[in-house]
Amino acid sequence: MSFDLVIRDGLVVDGSGLPGYRADVGVKDGKIAEIGRLRSGAARTIDAGGLVVAPGFIDHHTHLDAQILWDPYGTSEPAHGVTTVVMGNCGLALAPVRPGGEDALVKSFVRVEAMPREALEAGVPWGWRSYGEYLNGLDGKVGINVAGLVGHIAVRHAVMGEEAVERAATDEEVEAMKGLVHEALAGGALGLSTNRNERHFREDAKPVSSRLADDAEFFGLCDVVGQANSGVIQVILGLNKVEHIPWYDALARRTGRPIIWQIVMHAWTQPDLWRQQLEAIAPTFRDGYRAYGLTNTLPIWRRFTIDNAQAFDEFPVWKNIMFLPQAVRHQALRDPETRHKLRADLATTRLTTFHRRWDLLEIVKVGKPENEQFLRQTMADLAAARGQDPLDAFLDACLDDPELTFLTSNTGGDPVATGEILRSPYVLVGESDAGAHVQFDANFGYGTLLLSHWVRDKAVMSLEQAVHKLTFQVASIYGIEGRGLIRSGYAADLTLFDPGTVAPCEPEWAADFPANTKRMVQRSVGLDYTIVNGAVIYDHGRLSGDLPGEVVRGGGASRPG
Ligand SMILES: [Zn+2]
To answer: What is the pLDDT of residue 561?
Structure first.
């Protein structure tokens, strides 16, 4: 056989979790045709010596529903080895939609996912009604593979119009919503998503529509997914509580479908919560039901000085002082009486997102030469060196050298706990939120961060396990057939990277959104090629411009019914 493409002499890490092996991979007509020591020629050959050849990663928690319409690569996904994305998470989707109902969805996306309204208005060519029509419109127009969940927020608006953000649904309306979910699954949706996050509002300060659904409505819609025997159910409840676990368990048992809930991460302020969550969900799995917790590989870092320390805004006494003019503020921070109040404020037992741990404040920048010895040490080290109480040492040192800069994280900062979370068979790795919060951050690189920080630097799991977590595990749970493994007959979705150097870069600004709006993108290093359905779309930082992506439809689309 003559191949379209042969990838020579790479280390094939095939997505199964089995040990990698040295082999050539032959590609023909968009599929993997043969693996091993290949003798036939090919139209194109890539020398993969020193590189890992892995299945393309599947980024299953994205909000690229709108972006994919003007950016067929969902950039920066290909730079991080992603070949398939799942859109429609957290209840938000661009379909189904009734005539005139488009702006209700824009209002939700703009606020919850922090997308620029101008970009959505200029970039979304409305015209579809059903979820299947939305997906069909992407056929032939995408550079990566796309799949989507139907969002409860859209379903509710499609039936109830603007009353969806005002009141509970009638029985007839719930029946109509069930009809739309059924139609969406038949049209190719990979499942259903919903949102009960009490912090999620629309642009006009109204709650997103799914928050007004009672359990009867929500379980009714989930039953449709169960009856279709296809698809996942993704839920976001907002506050992260172990008391939510029985609800996920009930949903898993009732529908028999995989439930995806978020989020399970180590937090210094609640250091045992992740373990309690995983212990509470274990009986669900032991009984043969599935309710996966979602985790992120990225610690949520904050960087601050004494003059921009928003970390202290959660403490009322601190907050009042931090909002004073600088000279007055510095004066107040020197005052012993004020320090007494600041100390008491920090000692409250109330749950906060700031951990109040001096040993977790790393000094990353100094202004005065005498402080250079403390670079890369912690505030606790500095206090010990000064022989001072840490709070006094912190304030004195900062007032003396206001350029002292601290780096800290409440979430994902404990490598031992994070390692256990990442290794858990009950945990899915993801939450890039790609397409969302585009002017605050970019986390396309959760996979390259797993391979660099967690596998290479911290050795929390093998490379093979990590690749499995990014590929076949996701494909299996979401019901993405024929992708996520390197096997003959599977789609030739591949990524080639150097395991010694692969890493994400710091996010950076780009002005490439519609209406000249800005957003953040993220490059990578050490990731050489990304291949979608046999076509090389990413080659050392360059995108080819080809559109080999396919719409990945769920099993509900093909089943007679
Ligand atoms: Zn989300």
So the answer is: 47
CA distance 287 to 236: 23
**CA 234 – ligand 1 centroid, Å:** 9
Q: Which amino acid is located at 46 in the chain?
A: I
| d(CA 88, ligand 1 centre) in Å | 8
Average pLDDT value for residue range 283-295: 98
Extended strands (E) in 190-334: 191-195, 232-236, 259-262, 291-295, 301-304
Tell me the three state secondary structure of residue 307.
coil
Residue 497 CA to ligand 1 center (angstroms) comes to: 28
127: phi then psi, degrees, rounded to nearest 5: 155, -20
CA angle 160, 131, 222 (to 5 degrees): 70
What are the structure tokens assigned to 150, written together? Answer: 């139907």
Residues with CB under 5 Å of ion ligand 1 are 89-90
Structure-token pair, residue 131: 């979820």
Cα angle value 46/51/52 (rounded, 5°): 110
Q: Give, in order, the Cα–Cα distances in Å from 116 to each of 53, 204, 460, 512.
A: 37, 15, 38, 12
According to DSSP, residue 369 is labeled G
pTM for this prediction: 0.91
Q: How far is the CA of 63 from the centre of ligand 1 (A)?
A: 7
Q: How far is the CA of 560 from the centre of ligand 1 (A)?
A: 32
Which residues does residue 427 pair with via DSSP β-bridges, in sequence order?
Answer: 293
Q: What share of the chain is helix, strand, coil (3-state, %, to 5)?
A: 40, 20, 40
Place of tokens 């931090």: 322
Determine the residue type at 1.
M
- Dihedral sign, Cα of residue 283, residue 286, residue 291, residue 294: positive
Position 558 scores a pLDDT of 67
Most confident of 26-30, 37-41, 205-209: 26-30
User: Percent of the chain, pLDDT > 70?
Assistant: 99
CA distance 513 to 71: 8
Q: Which residues pair with 536 in a beta bridge?
A: 531
| Dist. CA 198 → ligand 1 center (Å) | 14
pLDDT in tens, 313-346: 889 999 899 889 999 999 999 999 999 999 999 9
At 12 the three-state DSSP class reads: strand
Q: How far is CA 329 from CA 45, 334, 347, in A?
A: 64, 9, 21
- Could you tell me which of 390, 399, 403 has the C-alpha nearest to residue 328? 399
